[in-house]
Amino acid sequence: MNKEDPKKELLLCVFERLLKAYGKRNWWPAESPLEVMIGCILTQNTAWKNVEKAIANMKKKNLIDLHALRSIDVGELSEVIRPVGFYTLKAKRLKALVDFLFDEFKGDLELMKRMDQHTLRKRLLGVDGVGPETADSILLYALEKPIFVVDAYTRRFLINHGLFDGRAKYERIQAFFMSNLPEDTYIYNEFHALIVYLGQKHCRKVPICKGCPLESGKT
DNA sequence: CACCAGGCAAGTA
DNA sequence: TACTTGCATGGT
């Protein structure tokens, strides 16, 4: 529809190439929306491998459960998630999120899902420990809202291609993707997952696709 | 041994 | 507004 704007086709081109090269990533790696949300908090500035250990510990104690999380002592919870690092901090943050879910939605994630995306984002940002990336990860990967997640991999990806510098604001980077792609949960989900996969595979250095038109397109 | 990992909040200038 | 620092375990 917008053949006048080359960036729209360029970004889709990159997405198609990544998808074709690596296939679907099936993100987020979790068994339920609640587990996604928990992972979003636990993975803050932390290697995913450590998060897996903490999640496994939680599963053993049946703690991937809103009621169980509400009643558990925060100190006890912190010991369960110890492998993630920053564990006292993150136990508090998990508690804050759980309180929020009960206060606003009676602990009903289906009810939460019905709320307007922009309102929901603002509410999430009001929760202690939920910043832009965590809020958007919850919206996209737990609630399937069409919003693009910007993380460290996304930034490196853009920096490596000379599209942004390291000081670029979160919202600007997010707008770059969202204004140049269709508003589509599947694309946002898969694209971000592919960027992460690519970053991990190539030690966050190698340009993704030589000869891709993106190489010549600066913002 | 040093450095990093799928951030965020609070403090300072 | 733009930096800086604390939070902390586990892997390379």
What report would you give on this structure?
- The chain has 219 residues and is mainly alpha-helical.
- The protein has 2 domains: 5-24 and 150-201, no CATH class; 33-142, Hypothetical protein, domain 2 (Endonuclease III, domain 1).
- Helices cover 61% and strands 0% of the residues.
- It contains 12 helices and no strands.
- It has helices at 6-22, 33-42, 48-60, 66-71, 74-80, 87-105, 109-113, 117-125, 132-142, 152-160, 170-179, 185-201.
- α2 (33-42) packs antiparallel against α9 (132-142) and α5 (74-80) crosses α6 (87-105).
- The model has no long low-confidence stretch (mean pLDDT 91).
- The structure holds a DNA duplex (13 and 12 nucleotides).
Which SSEs are present, and which pair or pack?
Layout: H1 6-22, H2 33-42, H3 48-60, H4 66-71, H5 74-80, H6 87-105, H7 109-113, H8 117-125, H9 132-142, H10 152-160, H11 170-179, H12 185-201
This protein binds a DNA duplex (13 and 12 nucleotides) through residues 39-41, 43-51, 53, 82-90, 93, 128-134, 137, 149, 151-154, 167, 192, 196, 199-200.
Strand portion, in percent? Answer: under 5%
| Percent range of helical residues | 55-70%
The main β sheet shows up as: none
Could you name the CATH topology of the largest domain?
A: Endonuclease III, domain 1
| Contiguous helical run count | 12
